[in-house]
């Protein structure tokens, strides 16, 4: 009997080399990697600390079924989200009224759906302040955790 080359479980078909579970795990990791590459460098800084502390998160998280809005970083279990506002970026949505209006819509819908959103700009990350940001995220996660338990 042939075995999965990753997890060593016996395979049901001689033509395959990886079991279904490992394939979906691989696809999930690939999507996660791609999202991470796309993530803003400040969001990536946060993710690196979260990973070290074993705090699970989602990137580019679509929080409403029927709308396209996504959070840069989210903790769906606690309905906590983190947004990086690139207000000085060239193609920033904040540079025009339509874009800013869309953002208002997004945050209003998030609030109605009980999300708590932390919003940051590059200034918040200057001079190693990423740890201040992390502290705020952890404070909020703790608050949400205590509320539910
Ligand atoms: Zn496997």
- The residue fraction in helices comes out at 40-55%
Q: Which geometry do the CA atoms define?
A: elongated
Overall pLDDT:
88
Low-confidence blocks of residues: none
Radius of gyration: 19 Å
CATH superfamily of the largest domain: VSR Endonuclease
Helix segment tally: 4
Strand tally, please? 4
CATH class of the largest domain: Alpha Beta
What characteristics describe this protein?
14% strand; 149 residues; elongated; alpha+beta; Endonuclease, Chain A; binds zinc ion
Describe the structure in your own words:
The model has no long low-confidence stretch (mean pLDDT 88). This protein has two domains: 1-38, no CATH class; 39-148, 3-Layer(aba) Sandwich (Endonuclease, Chain A). A hairpin with a 7-residue loop joins strand 1 (58-62) and strand 2 (70-75). Helix 2 crosses helix 4. The chain has four helices and four strands. By secondary structure, it is of the alpha+beta class. A four-stranded mixed β-sheet has the order 1-2-3-4, sandwiched between helices. It binds zinc ion. The site of zinc ion has 8 residues, from helix 1.
Quick summary of this structure?
The protein is of the alpha+beta class and 149 residues long. It is built from four helices and four strands; from the N terminus they run H-H-E-E-E-H-E-H.
């Amino acid at each position: 009997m042939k075995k999965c080359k990753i997890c060593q479980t016996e395979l049901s078909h001689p033509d395959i080399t990886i079991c279904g579970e490992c394939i979906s795990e691989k696809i999930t990791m690939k999507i996660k990697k791609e999202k991470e590459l796309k993530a803003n460098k400040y969001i990536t800084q946060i993710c690196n600390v979260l990973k070290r502390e074993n705090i699970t998160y989602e990137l580019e998280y679509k929080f409403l079924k029927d709308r396209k809005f996504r959070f840069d970083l989210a903790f769906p279990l606690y309905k906590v989200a983190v947004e990086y506002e690139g207000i000085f970026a060239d193609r920033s949505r904040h540079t025009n009224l339509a874009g800013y209006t869309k953002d208002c819509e997004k945050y209003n819908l998030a609030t109605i759906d009980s999300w708590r959103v932390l919003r940051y700009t590059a200034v918040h990350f200057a001079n190693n302040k990423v740890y201040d940001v992390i502290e705020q995220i952890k404070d909020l996660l703790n608050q949400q955790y205590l509320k539910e338990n």
